[in-house]
Design goal:
six-stranded antiparallel β-sheet; two-stranded parallel ribbon; 9 helices; 8 strands; globular
Length: 280
Amino acid sequence: MLRNFVTFELSAILGNVEPKALAAATFIALLVVGSTLGALKARSRKAVLTTVKTRSRKTVIGALVIALGAAYWAWNADILPGFRQPLQVGRVISGMDTNANGIDDYQDIVDGARLQVAFRPRYKSAYYDGGYPPDNEGVCTDLVWRALWNAGYDLKASVDLDIAWATDKYPRVAGSADPNIDFRRVPNLYVFLTRKANAMTTEVKSWDPANAKEWQPGDIVVFGSSYDHIGIVSDKRRRDGLPLVIHHGWGRPVEDNALGRAKNQVTGHFRLNLNKLSTH
């Protein structure tokens, strides 16, 4: 699972560097190079020419690498300067409060996912008797069931029940259900969501009000042609309307611009029918 996620993540980064990031990188690089050459003015012209010939090439390359990295980070964090007002996007709520805590269930799911970012379980893919990993370990699917649990829903029970009813619909199960692991496999969750949730758009468009409204907090997004990764759509948005995604790829859970980076890798986007889920 980790290898597949790394593969799609790298391809997403390389395939989705936006023009504004490249423009910013060029600008920053020019500033760095200009500052470097300016510092050399105190030397004689001959010394400058010699330095340029022997050292400036490495300096410029190093500056460009640093600038590109900084610009990509700034784009991903949505802190590049801009002149457009943030896109205003309407909010969809579930109208349900299963755990009676006064918070709408879709928001409760987002809050549960965000708790994982704060708790910081380490990435570990393993088989556990009983199905559940220790609280300090997990993978992408663990963040999802933990997020739903926070809102009062039992994803494991829901998936296990549907697999028992329709085993042939789940190719990854291969005819033999295993409650210790089935609910922690993205391909199984993808099938479950196609059966028990509403399929939404998989298109990701910046500055598009209609598209942005399709992406709502608490939605579930699946990445990769082999259904390699899964996450929860956040209630935080970039200025261009794209929501962040809360997910656990490698290392620790994060809340970041996964949709912007991996917009060509989205293979599933679902809104839960909460009344079709088991509760706890």
